[in-house]
Specification:
The complex is a heterotetramer of chains A (549), B (314), C (516) and D (294). Chain A has two domains: 257 residues, P-loop containing nucleotide triphosphate hydrolases (Rossmann fold, 3-Layer(aba) Sandwich); 183 residues, P-loop containing nucleotide triphosphate hydrolases (Rossmann fold, 3-Layer(aba) Sandwich), CATH 3.40.50. Chain A contains 22 helices and 20 strands. In chain A, the strands form four sheets. Chain A has a six-stranded mixed β-sheet with strand order 6-7-8-3-9-10, sandwiched between helices. In chain A, strands 16-17-18-13-19-20 form a six-stranded mixed β-sheet, with helices on both faces. In chain A, strand 1 and strand 2 form a beta hairpin. With 314 residues, chain B is an all-alpha fold. Chain B has a domain of 183 residues: MetI-like (MetI-like fold), CATH 1.10.3720.10. In chain B, helix 5 crosses helix 11. Chain C has 516 residues and is α+β, with helices and mostly antiparallel strands. Helix content of chain C is 26%, strand content 21%. Chain C is built from 14 helices and 25 strands. In chain C, a hairpin with a 3-residue loop joins strand 8 and strand 9. Chain C starts with 7 loop residues before the first strand and ends with a strand. The chains are: A alpha/beta (549), B mainly alpha (314), C alpha+beta (516), D mainly alpha (294). Chains in contact: A-B, A-D, B-C, B-D, C-D. Chains B and C meet through helix 2, helix 3, helix 5, helix 7 and helix 11 of B and strand 10, helix 5 and helix 11 of C. The complex binds adenosine-5'-triphosphate (2 copies) and magnesium ion (2 copies). One magnesium ion binds next to helix 12 of chain A.
């Protein structure tokens, strides 16, 4: 902070900003007296748990608060001018030209029915920066600049023809088109794979230095913030808990909340402390393999009707010993979900053998398959989607018991209560419905449902990816504890290597449906057997800090 | 693609045949028939023997399945038979009635689309909450008014009280003013409702925020980003609207004495003029099938996501 | 003032015509057109009901009314140029009197006992009858006897819906037609053979007539009053006041036939007992119906036929509204009031059913009032508004429709036969008549009287029989006459010279449009 | 755990404002109820009361007129005037409620039960059968609805309930399509798979998850269809296929009253306005369902 002080006035100065939403009857203030500043060329990260007001703050700066949001007080000064009370018309001249935005979700941030070229060109046209042939040329050079191959082709394509990472590059091209003074990047990579994430963040960094633009980076990932930001602003409940130079905050967090954030971030813990020894400490009877996957192949026929099949999983084999955790990692589309859906019996494999606790899955169908489900349970990636919105927590957790009809009503009730308190859900949550629960609570319900049948194996598909670090840490602790107490076997799917390293014993790294690396976690991490694994490991954010400490 | 088209064509033929058969059975099951209705009329003063002779001459007493086969055979050769009630060939009647309905329906639909668009776009552009509220309750109101009642009221007010447009012996375009409004009102309501909802949905999607962040004004965003995206899903209710258009046409044509298929349907049902009804059903099923086919083929043209089907998963 | 030549009359008709085969002209929309485009052998003076010359210059009838000889006016042509001579007339009557099976053309209801024709010379034609047919002369004057060209008669029946194919010799010819919507007539310049005793001769004053089908009552009346039409048919009684208030003219020519009545089907056991029918007759307050629903143009009935009809006999004394008598009759017949207020006998309730008749003015309301009046006696009348198919099928079955509204217009005592005779309209549904659903009911006495009525050549005797039938029908309480039904039209004040034939179809031959 | 609770309360109140409303107490609910919605419920409540206890609202006989009182203008003794037979129009409207509402109810119930069953079956069975069923639904859609209802009335005979059935049949296709797409949507959801995963049988999953979750929007449409059924039944009355006299069914009142429009405008206007109000109210209420469901 002291370093970049005197000569230049700050690009942005936010002072005592307060923002409230009103929903019909009540005003609810979600941002309280937030102040911070961004100097030219500087990256400031806004960190905090979900709902802490990060997006709200960012939106207010670019004047795009929701219709029901209102700035209650404070000022937002852009180059010394307070724009917090400007009309839309005034702001239109600033948006895109002086402040631009890189949104969170590249999938839905581009208009699906317009070409990429038109959407990049639009910002130039709105501000009268180019037209005609010149426009096309500028669009193509911008696309090229953000690292898109065949920019002329891309300009003619539609968003759905591009991958998530490519789309985010297009959005970045739009954001930098007019060389704005400030770019607001709201979780620019949280919807992307780790490897892609790293490349995108690198690109933003590169352009920032090239154009001298300042960046307000909104993120809940402390690792990302640590790697990229000059200064941190830590928000909780709409209040600034701590602000200061990244190094300072990370080295010696002053507020309790910042300390906790730091402790929960897996990217740090993975490096800072060895994964807590779980089942690994227990002596294991060798040969007690609960899951045996042998030569698994899964083909899908593509829907475009040309009959060509697509191989999502290709000759995958691994074994999981009882009471341990096996992780499957890989980037999006690598076949992780496909694999586990075959393992839990939702999908008949094209070839290969799957054996769970001695039962060959291919022999099961109908009632035997139903009975088999007692042994293995799946926890979904998206807890909200996997819980019936019309059922109460109690009904959800009691349903598996009901399905197998093994318990009388009082016993069932008792069991449900027991398991719910086991996963740490408060008693009053029992008759709430999923929408009235937080993300972490929902995931606990999903876990409780999986556990209520006393299964041997629990399969977790990205079970913590959607949660913010604090909640994620709680859930991981819970899983660890349950495994220890109940002797569960976990099959854990994730794209987050930091998490994997923290909790699993063995791992399979998938790429395009093939296993490129596998074995004990330590071995894979210390001595990666493939470039791909190495790339994955390098992409783990937070390494800058690790280097610092 | 050609396989897909063939498949669709097969389905279309099936729908046509099934509509024909169902209507044939329905008509056969009705008490009485056109011949009875026409000739048992005491005004004609025919005795039972004469009526029996007439029945025989129409071959109306042969076995049902024979009639079914014969009718299908006739239809396949493009012969729709004679209207018992009116005494002219059905094809002549259709030719005489179709233009009026086509005009009424297409103009009615156009006006409905304009109503709907005005309601939807003005209400999302206006900065005034009360205008927005008022406009958005218009579809509900439109949907609540009985069509025939509206028609009669419009005639009373605009033709008889204010004497703005004649309903009797009007010019070719004057003739359409009130009926088109009458028809457009009930049709515009569901259109407007769907549009308003779609616009609301699209307005909250992130790409709109991105466009705004580029510095685009509300109007710019509405026209260049929202409009097309909001119109697309509206196409899906085309099939349902078709039915409403026909139902609306029957009533409108009856009220205004227009000489269209709608009014003809009403009269033909009344006199159980089987040949006419059979032809109308086949035509309407044909129109339905064609409209749906067009909509299906139009979707990929308007929505690039549907052009390459496999790409949709990416 | 003198009649003005020129102009087109805009005429709003309630229903589209169905078929223009002349004997089908009984249906008003058909008749309204046929009356302009066809001429008849004779003309019945609507005031005197005398038969006057038209296409026939003169005629003779033999004593027992089995042979009629007509002398045809010369120089008459159909609009296609073919001559209207004795041969043409003979051809017409052969079809009307005998029908044509091949072409599906039915026999005319107004021609009884027809045997054959004979062309005596080009201007003379003679008709022979198997039995006396005294009503035939009048029958030659009605719409159903309009003369058409040979080309029209050669068409199969189902093609006669197309007005442009109907070639007549009348003052107007069909110019163009939009099926179901509009019909344009234009004047025939060379027309010079109007009824001889009419003041107006030569071509019609109007250049043309535009018939526009306008089904909605409110639109017809509104359009007339708004100046969009000149003349309309079917004006309901409740609209008369406002028409007259604006100095427009109501025309309500009597149909001179069987009155608007409610008839019974005695084959149904519920109304087989004459006492029950009589009770219901006396329970019906025709006066209340007329004052509530109608106007002075709808006189209360005093017999089963109109007071202006030939052979009318005033029997109002037998039609008196007398609820006490009605109750006594029902009690006597064994129908006692049950717990639910309905009359019962042997476990059966006196619940009757009738279909409303769409063409009759305010028939639904009329029947509802009748139901209300009978209800006071503990008799329930269910009024149904069925579709045409069910209505016709059910109407043939006395068990389903023991009661029915009925009326028919024609200015000859034969009309009574038309209405009641089993081979004609058979409103009472007798065995051997229109319906094969009838179990046993037949009234030979009535049928004998009706046959005599249609074949008694002596005019005085014929009228006496007509009177007898009226008495008999009411004595048997087969019908409850309610009012004399007019055809109600309304015209703009500048529409002059509207004439009606004897049973209320308009004739626009002498019509002209004054300055306005 | 308290931290969790605050988080969830924040999140819930904003993202699920309407849903959360359900959990509030009744007085709170009333305060939150928008005026329009409250009025709509009021209109429906009155119409319902008319249907169940019409005698509480009028002392006139709806079926029998008083001679000499016909076609009276609205005044203190006859709130909405009288008709051609001297019957009090207000009384006829009040007593007609039961016919119109039963008619609409039967129509909607028929479309809902039959249509939804077809849709649910189509949505849950194999692709082939599903395709076949949906083509049949297309056939139903391709026949002009009015012709279909008129034919059905002719087949069944005239009467309020028969008219309702005729109207209901035309909505079967719409319900079937909607419920099928909802079922297909719900069937794809994770929670359905999760239910199978926790050992649910096909029937149990269908009953516990698929049905309840797909019916919400179907029910919202049902409320909408209710209004439209009232209208369609009245249209049948206009075309001459309504209930037999003297049934004071609303559609029939409008339809019959129209003939008197130039002499007694209230005969068609008053029931017309009542129908508009009821249908509007039904619409409004259906929208509020839709929001809760969304
Ligand atoms: N349009 C809105 N109306 C009402 N409340 C809102 C609205 N948008 C956000 N909120 C609430 O404001 C608070 C802050 O939300 P915001 O989106 O700024 O959080 P965030 O820090 O970006 O969280 P996340 O990491 O989940 O994106 C939350 O409680 C949220 O529920
Ligand atoms: N039912 C299916 N039909 C056709 N292709 C499928 C199907 N399910 C998955 N695929 C394809 O198989 C590949 C692997 O998908 P899978 O869902 O297993 O990936 P993943 O590793 O779980 O990715 P993510 O991290 O995005 O969840 C993808 O290319 C996907 O498009
Ligand atoms: Mg956010
Ligand atoms: Mg996955």
């Amino acid at each position: 902070m002291s370093a970049s002080s005197v000569p230049h006035p700050p690009v942005l100065e936010v002072e005592n900003l307060s923002i409230a939403y009103h929903d019909g009857i009540a005003h609810r203030r979600v941002v309280h007296d937030v102040s911070f500043r961004i100097d030219p060329g500087e990256v400031v990260a806004l960190v905090g748990e979900s709902g802490s007001g990060k997006t709200t703050t960012a939106q207010s700066i670019i004047g795009l608060l929701h219709a029901n949001g209102r700035i209650d007080g404070g000022s937002i000064r852009l180059n010394g001018t307070d724009i917090s009370r400007w009309s839309d018309r005034q702001l239109d001249t600033v948006r895109g030209a002086k402040i631009s935005l890189i949104p969170q979700d590249p999938a839905s941030s581009l208009n699906p029915v317009k070409t990429i070229g038109a959407q990049v060109g639009e910002i130039l046209r709105i501000h009268g920066a180019a037209s005609g042939r010149d426009l096309d040329a500028r669009v193509i050079s911008l696309l090229e600049r953000v690292g898109l191959s065949e920019p002329a082709l891309r300009a003619r394509q539609y968003p759905h023809e591009l991958s998530g990472g490519m789309r985010q590059r297009v959005l970045i091209a739009i954001a930098v088109a007019l060389k704005p003074q400030l770019i607001i990047a709201d979780e620019p990579t949280s919807a992307l794979d780790v490897t892609v994430q790293k490349r995108i963040l690198d690109l933003i960094d590169e352009l920032r230095t090239e154009y001298g633009t300042s960046v307000l980076l909104v993120t809940h990932d402390l690792g990302v913030a640590a790697d990229r930001a000059d200064r941190l602003v830590v928000l909780q409940g709409g209040r600034v808990q701590e602000a200061g130079a990244t190094k300072v905050v990370l080295a010696a967090p002053r507020s309790a909340y910042a300390r906790q954030l730091l402790a929960d971030a897996p990217s740090f813990s993975a490096v800072a402390r060895k994964a807590p020894a779980t089942a690994r400490e227990k002596p294991l009877a060798s040969g007690d393999d609960v899951i045996i996957v042998d030569g698994l192949v899964q083909d899908f026929t593509r829907t475009d009707g040309n009959g060509k099949s697509f191989r999502a999983v290709n000759d995958l084999s691994f074994r999981v010993r009882r009471g341990t955790t096996h992780a499957i990692v890989g980037e999006s589309g690598s076949g992780k979900t496909t694999t586990i859906r075959a393992i839990v019996g939702f999908q008949k494999p094209t070839a290969g053998r799957i054996e769970i606790d001695g039962t060959d899955l291919s022999t099961l169908r109908g009632e035997t398959l139903r009975q088999f489900r007692r042994k293995i349970q799946l926890v979904y990636q998206n807890p909200y989607g996997s819980l019936d919105p019309r059922q109460t927590v109690f009904e959800i957790v009691a349903e598996p018991l009901l399905n197998f009809g093994s318990l009388a009503r009082p016993a069932r009730e008792e069991k449900v209560r027991a398991i719910l308190s086991r996963v740490g859900l408060p008693e009053p949550a029992l008759d709430r419905r999923p929408h009235a629960l937080s993300g972490g609570q929902r995931q606990r319900v999903a876990i409780a449902r999986a556990l209520v049948l006393d299964p041997d194996v629990v399969v977790l598909d990205e079970a913590v990816s959607a949660l913010d670090v604090t909640v994620q840490a709680r859930i991981l602790d819970l899983l660890d504890e349950l495994q220890r107490d109940l002797g569960l076997t976990y099959l854990f799917v994730s794209h987050d290597l930091a998490v994997v390293r923290q909790i699993s014993d063995t791992v399979s790294v998938l790429k395009d449906g093939r296993e490129v690396d596998g074995g004990a976690v330590e071995d894979v991490f210390e001595r990666p057997g493939s470039d791909y694994t190495r790339e994955l490991i390098n992409a783990i954010p937070g390494q800058k800090r690790a280097a610092l400490v | 693609m050609s396989g897909y088209l063939l498949n669709r064509l097969g389905q279309a033929l099936f729908v046509l045949w099934a509509a024909f058969t169902i209507s044939f059975v329905l008509l056969q099951a009705m008490p009485g028939d056109a011949i009875l209705i026409k000739f048992q009329n005491p005004e004609l003063g025919l005795n039972p023997q004469q009526i029996a002779d007439i029945r025989a001459s129409y071959a109306a007493d042969s076995a049902i399945w024979v009639q079914y086969i014969q009718t299908i055979g006739r239809f396949l050769t493009g012969n729709f038979g004679y209207s018992v009630q009116v005494g002219v060939p059905v094809s002549t009647m259709l030719a005489a009635h179709l233009p009026a309905t086509l005009k009424l329906a297409s103009l009615g639909f156009l006006l409905a689309a304009i109503f709907a668009a005005v309601i939807a776009f003005v209400s999302s552009l206006t900065p005034f909450v009360w205008i927005r509220g008022a406009l958005q309750s218009v579809p509900s109101l439109f949907i609540s008014i009985p069509t025939f009642w509206l028609g009669i009221m419009l005639i009373q007010i605009f033709s008889f009280r204010l004497k703005l447009v004649p309903v009797i012996n009007p010019g070719p375009w004057q003739e359409l003013i009130l009926p088109v409004i009458t028809l457009a009102v009930p049709i515009s309501a569901p259109l407007a409702q769907v549009l308003v909802r779609n616009i609301d949905d699209v307005l909250t999607s992130p790409f709109v925020a991105v466009a705004r962040a580029k510095g685009a004004t509300r109007q710019w965003v509405l026209w260049r980003h929202v409009a097309k995206n909001a119109l697309l899903p509206t196409l899906t209710i085309a099939g349902v609207l078709f039915g409403e258009l026909i139902a609306g046409a029957v009533v409108t044509e009856t009220v205004f004495g227009l000489n269209g298929i709608g009014g003809l349907t009403g009269r033909a049902v009344g006199s159980q003029d089987a040949a006419v009804l059979q032809a109308i059903v086949v035509f309407s099923a044909l129109a339905f099938v064609i409209i749906n086919l067009i909509v299906d083929l139009l979707f990929p043209v308007l929505d690039p996501r549907l052009r390459t089907k496999a790409g949709a998963t990416a | 003032s003198d009649p003005v030549k020129g102009g087109t009359l805009i005429y709003l008709e309630q229903q589209a015509h169905t078929n223009l085969y002349p004997p089908a002209g009984g249906f008003y929309p058909n008749g309204g057109i046929l009356n302009q485009i066809t001429d008849k052998l004779t003309y019945q003076n609507p005031k005197t009901l005398e038969i006057e010359p038209w296409i026939a210059e003169s005629w003779t009838v033999n004593a027992d009314a089995t042979e009629y000889t007509f002398k045809i006016r010369s120089g008459v042509t159909f609009s296609d140029g073919t001559p209207l001579d004795a041969a043409a007339v003979a051809k017409n009557y052969d079809v009307f009197g005998l029908g044509n099976k091949e072409l599906k053309q039915p026999v005319s209801e107004v021609i009884n006992n027809y045997e054959r024709s004979e062309v005596v010379d080009p201007q003379t034609v003679k008709f022979y009858f198997k039995k006396p047919s005294p009503g035939f002369l009048q029958g030659t004057s009605v719409i159903g006897s309009g003369l058409v060209a040979a080309s029209t008669l050669a068409l199969p029946f189902e093609q006669l819906g197309d007005a442009t194919k109907i070639i007549g010799s009348g003052p107007f010819v069909v110019d163009s037609e939009t099926i179901g919507k509009e019909l344009n007539l234009k004047a025939r310049e060379e027309y010079a053979w109007g009824p001889a005793k009419l003041e107006h001769q030569g071509r019609p004053y109007l250049d043309g007539i535009k018939y526009i089908i306008t089904g909605e009552d409110s639109v017809r009346i509104g359009a007339l009053l708004a100046g969009q039409a000149d003349f309309i048919r079917q004006v309901q009684a409740y609209d008369e006041k406002q028409v007259e208030a604006q100095d427009y003219q109501i025309y309500a020519p009597s149909t001179r036939g069987v009155n608007n009545s409610v008839v019974f089907r005695p084959d149904n056991p519920l109304v087989a007992d004459v006492r029950v029918r009589k009770a219901l007759l006396h329970a019906t307050d025709a006066k209340e119906i007329v004052t509530t629903l109608f106007s002075a143009n709808y006189p209360q009935a005093t017999s089963i036929i109109a007071s202006t009809a030939l052979g009318y006999r005033d029997i109002s004394a037998k039609l008196a509204f007398d609820p006490e008598k009605a109750k006594a009759l029902l009690d006597e017949a064994g129908w006692t009031v049950g717990a639910n207020g309905l009359r019962q006998k042997d476990g059966k309730e006196l619940v009757l059913t009738a279909y409303e008749s769409l063409p009759q003015p305010q028939n639904k309301e009329t029947l509802q009032l009748v139901a209300q009046q009978w209800g006071k006696l503990g008799v329930k009348l269910t009024v149904l508004a069925g579709d045409s198919g069910s209505r016709i099928v059910d109407d043939l079955d006395p068990l389903k429709t023991p009661v029915s509204p009925a009326m028919v217009g024609r200015a000859d005592p034969d009309v009574i036969k038309s209405q009641y005779y089993p081979k004609n309209r058979d409103v009472l549904r007798q065995k051997g008549g229109q319906s094969d659903k009838v179990q046993s009911f037949a009234d030979d006495k009535l049928n004998g009287l009706l046959e005599a009525l249609s074949s008694e050549p002596d005019r005085e005797k014929r009228l006496a029989i007509a009177g007898e039938v009226q008495d008999y029908v009411v004595d048997q309480a087969y019908a409850i006459p309610i009012f004399e039904e007019p055809q109600a039209f309304a015209g703009a004040p500048y529409v002059q010279g509207i004439a009606f034939e004897a049973v209320g179809r308009p004739s626009f031959y002498s019509t002209w449009l004054a300055e306005h | 755990m308290t931290t969790f609770d605050t988080i969830h309360h924040d999140a819930i109140a904003s993202r699920h404002g309407q849903r959360a409303g359900r959990r509030f107490s009744v007085p709170h609910l009333i305060r939150r109820l928008p005026v329009g919605l409250a009025l709509s419920w009021l209109v429906l409540a009155i119409a319902f009361l008319w249907a169940v206890a019409p005698w509480l609202f009028t002392s006139y006989n709806p079926l029998e007129g008083v001679g000499g009182e016909q076609l009276r203008r609205p005044d203190a003794s006859h709130l909405l005037g009288t008709d051609a037979l001297g019957r009090d129009l207000y009384a006829r409207i009040v007593y007609g409620a039961v016919h119109s509402l039963t008619g609409a109810f039967v129509a909607v119930a028929l479309g809902l039960v039959v249509g939804t069953s077809i849709g649910v079956i189509a949505g849950s069975v194999r692709r082939r059968i599903d395709d076949a069923i949906m083509r049949l639904i297309d056939v139903l859609l391709s026949i002009p609805p009015l012709m279909l209802s008129l034919s059905i009335i002719i087949l069944l005979g005239f009467g309020t309930v028969n008219a309702a059935i005729a109207v209901g049949v035309t909505s079967v296709a719409r319900f079937a399509r909607l419920s099928r797409s909802e079922v297909v949507r719900v069937r794809r959801s994770d929670y359905v798979e999760a239910a199978f995963g926790s050992g649910g049988t096909f029937a149990a999953v269908l009953w516990r998850h698929v049905l309840p979750n797909s019916l919400t929007s179907v029910l919202a449409i049902a409320a909408l269809q209710f209004g439209s059924a009232v209208l369609q039944i009245s249209t049948l009355g206009f075309l001459g296929y309504g209930a037999p006299p003297p049934t004071p069914e609303w559609g029939l009142l409008i339809a019959e009253g129209r003939n008197y429009i130039s002499t007694a405008w209230w005969l068609t206007t008053a029931p017309g306005v009542i129908v508009v109000l009821v249908v509007l109210a039904a619409n409004r209420v259906s929208q509020s369902f839709g929001k809760v469901a969304a």
